[in-house]
Amino acid sequence: MPSISKRLFVILAVTTSLVWLSAVVWIYLSTRAEVERVLDARLMEAGRMVSSLIVSQEIVVDPTQSSTTDLPLRAHSTYDRQLSCQIWSLQGTLIGRSDGAPDEKLSEHADGFSETVIDGETWRVYAVTNAELGVRVLVGDSMWIRDRLVNDVIRGLLLPALLILPVLAVLIWLSVRRGLEPLRNIAGDLETRHAADLSPIDDTQTAKEIMPVLQSLNGLFARVAGLRERERNFTAFAAHELRTPLAGLKTQAQVALASGDGAIRKQALSQIVIGVDRTSRLVRQLLDMSSLEAFDQVERQGSVQAGPVLRALAEELADPVREVTVEISPALDMLTVEIEPELFTLAARNLLENAVNHSPQGGVVRCRAAETGGIVIEDDGPGIPQEELPRITERFFRGRHKAAVGSGLGLAIVELALGRSGWQLQLFNRETGGLSAVIGVHA
Amino acid sequence: MRVLIVEDDAVLRDGLRVGLGLGGFNADAVESCEEAHAVLKNHEFDALVLDLMLPDGSGLDVLRAMRERRDTTPVLLLTARDRVADRIAGLDAGADDYLGKPFDLDEVAARLRALLRRAAGRPGARLEWSGLSLDPATQKVEQDGKPVHLSRREYAVLHALMAHPGQILSRSRIEEKLYGWQEEVESNAIEVHIHHLRAKLGSDAIQTVRGIGYRLGGEM
């Protein structure tokens, strides 16, 4: 698992080290250049000084003499063997040299700076030619000393750095930890919270970088809480609505048990069958309702041939006992409606069921295409009292003209199912009596 | 004892009507507030079994209307809503008892008997009169400690008379307690039941008060 603190630490440590390193390189180069400039200037000055001393005869050299004069330039310990001086006659004999100077000629150059390797040691040499006296003054210093000077400076920088870097690493680690504290707090809050606790996380103290995460989390909490709330309501509703039919079943069962009369017992048992049918329909509708509600933000797409679906439902729902028939207009076979098939079937089933249940003995339920592109389902039943129309699609609302098997859920399911597909249900009392239910496109 | 059931669920309504009938009650049933109001205006009942959630309103409306009319008929509320707050609201609206669904049929009958007993101001469950003893719970009648076998109707007539000891009950009042409003009653049906009762209990058991009705013979 990738860790933000590790990642941050590595990035910070590497970048800090790089900054240190480049600073060191820069200091090394600039020190080196400076050392060279200063020492070159000294070489030049020393060369000219020796030359001028010869001119003023303070150093006495005889270009014709072959013995060498020791020059009063002393060199000891680390940095003192800095300068070596040689005085050569223009004829090529060594006239004089300083204490630490080598015997070999420091430079073949007549004038100016040059570098020579003598005994594996590199020398930086400045040459001054004094043509009047016939001598050439060579002043040089060892490059090794220059390198050592620069290296000492860099070492002086690196040593404390090596000590400081671990301290810096610890500081970086602590800062990263501290910087990530808001995240750890949220994680801790989430870890200790109870599974049922869906209250939003307090976001007043939160850094703005974490805000989006927190807001999405709180959004999720709100959605889950909403879903739970609906589930709870649904469970309460369901429990509630099932109590009455259960009471009916129990009462009829007790009647059947208590009565010695065969006719009464038979009647009670047939009531139990009706009750079970009614209750199973209620359970089915409750399940339809809950599955519709579970996805209440999702609009479902699809299309379906209205005719075949209605025909299949009609066959299933027609009531031969009361001689209620369902007629389906042939025009519907050609009609394709833009509703997800499952939702359409659900809506059509509940509307047809209602129409059949409210139809009188021998009634006819007619399905036809509406002029507006929807579907009309008409029955010859009592219709819905005008004052109940606005409330009729409310859950568990059962009007005065309710059918024996009505649960008060059917029309609510129809409305929900159609709403999911962007359609709507319209209900009218027909002038000739009965109800006209229209599945129409949203106005 | 005549009971009105107000319940919109057809299966439950039928079950209660038949079941209470088996328990010795004469039960009539309606399915809406509107019907309940109409029936209560024209008929007298000994008790009411009232559902709270009715298609055209709340059972509490029926109850309040009754109490406003100073109708003291005992009312047993039946409901799917049986949270404490619902029960309190029901009792405060004038109900005498409260039963949550699903309930036990025998318990409904027992509670109705208790309500009737309380309404009549009787301490015990049995009805006693001059050597006669009637137990509404078992629907058994004893005379001087010996069991007497009565038909359902005969029992109902005796129950009505013993529930109002010493009072004269008119023939139409006894009919009311015996038959639902949809039942055809033959004009001499009560006389026939009284005749049978006298044959089983002795001719002095029930007195005819000419032109007014009947009452129990003998003394406490």
Question: How much β-strand is present in the residues of chain A?
Answer: 15-25%
Average pLDDT rating of chain A: 83
User: What's the CATH topology label of the largest domain in chain B?
Assistant: Rossmann fold
Shape of chain B: globular
CATH class of the largest domain in chain B: Alpha Beta
* Poorly predicted spans of chain B: none
Sheet of most strands of chain A: 6 strands, mixed
- Anisotropy-based shape of chain A: rod-shaped
SSE pattern of chain A, N- to C-terminal: HEHEEEEEHHHHEHEEHEEHEE
- End-to-end Cα distance of chain B: 22 Å
> In the CATH hierarchy, what is the architecture of the largest domain in chain B at level 2?
3-Layer(aba) Sandwich
If you compute it from the alpha carbons, what radius of gyration of chain B comes out, rounded to the nearest whole angstrom? Answer: 18 Å
What is the structural class of chain B?
Answer: alpha/beta
Number of strands of chain B: 13
Number of domains of chain A: 3
**Total count of helical runs of at least 4 residues of chain A:** 9
Largest sheet of chain B: 5 strands, parallel
Give your account of this protein's structure.
Chain A has 443 residues and is of the alpha+beta class. Chain A has 3 domains: 4-168, no CATH class; 211-292, Helix Hairpins, CATH 1.10.287.130; 299-441, Heat Shock Protein 90, CATH 3.30.565.10. Chain A is 51% helix and 16% strand. Chain A contains 9 helices and 13 strands. In chain A, the strands form 3 sheets. Chain A has a 6-stranded mixed sheet with strand order 1-3-2-6-5-4. In chain A, strands 8-10-11-13-12 form a 5-stranded mixed sheet, covered by helices on one side. In chain A, strand 10 (364-369) and strand 11 (375-378) form a beta hairpin. The mean pLDDT of chain A is 83. With 220 residues, chain B is of the alpha/beta class. Chain B is built from 8 helices and 13 strands. Chain B has helices spanning 10-22, 33-42, 59-68, 84-92, 105-120, 152-163, 171-178, 189-201, and strands spanning 2-6, 26-30, 47-51, 53-54, 57-58, 75-79, 97-100, 127-129, 132-135, 140-143, 146-148, 206-209, 213-216. A 5-stranded parallel sheet of chain B has the order 2-1-3-6-7, sandwiched between helices. At the A-B interface, helix 5 and helix 6 of A face helix 1 of B.
